[in-house]
Specification:
CATH architecture of the largest domain: Alpha-Beta Complex
Distance between the termini: 55 Å
Number of domains: 2
Largest sheet: 13 strands, antiparallel
Shape: elongated
CATH class of the largest domain: Alpha Beta
Helix content: under 10%
Strand content: over 45%
Number of strands: 21
CATH topology of the largest domain: Outer Surface Protein A, domain 3
Amino acid sequence: MEEELGKVIECLYGSIPNHVFYYCADHCIVFEKLSDTMTDENRENVVDKNYALFHANKLKIIKIFNLDTFEHKNQIGDYECNTIIERSDISLPYYVKIETVINLSSRSKINGFHKDYYESGSLKSCCTYRNGKKFGKYCEFYDEIHTRGGEEQEYLRLKCTYDEEEKLHKSYTKYYINQKISFRCQYRHGVKNQVREFDENQILTASYKYVNEVLHGTCYKYDNGVIAKIIYDNGTLLIQSEIFFTNV
């Protein structure tokens, strides 16, 4: 990132302040906010301005350059240098930090730890990559934060693990926003094995077994103490037992 940022700074040498940035087809679009530009930078749901996606009604295109070769272009798509784009509403997207655009451009070339962000600027996901593929622990978060012990923390939404072929491996878990488990599945190198679902009180509501990616064997569904027993054979429903009440 530091090396790429250095090259970008050289590419932007001589530029003036008040610039913002956008990513389009491996290119960085450099905008200038004008004196009468209106934006949504003061909207309430911004968590981190450095990573948030903002919008404007009017921007001037200053530069366009390739983020791999740093070659300048006069035009790409609807973007043309030294022209002003104007909308009737505040809908032209941009980022305030060039680092965010570099981050977007490098996804296919990622090696090492990487983070993605929501439009609000809050953390969306984090994972280690090898040659552009997810590897190891992957975490995804809700687009909300909470305070614990005086520090802001994210709400975990999903946690799983990828093998060297970017296939799901071991435990795959989803969480309610209260951080209790809603769904848990076991994988072995991309092959689903067992699934369990829970309500917000952590009561088991369903249990399924898979063989070769199809339902197989005895499965259960639970609802307020009522249990349904279902038997599958290679994806084909064989028996659904009488529903009976338990002491739950």
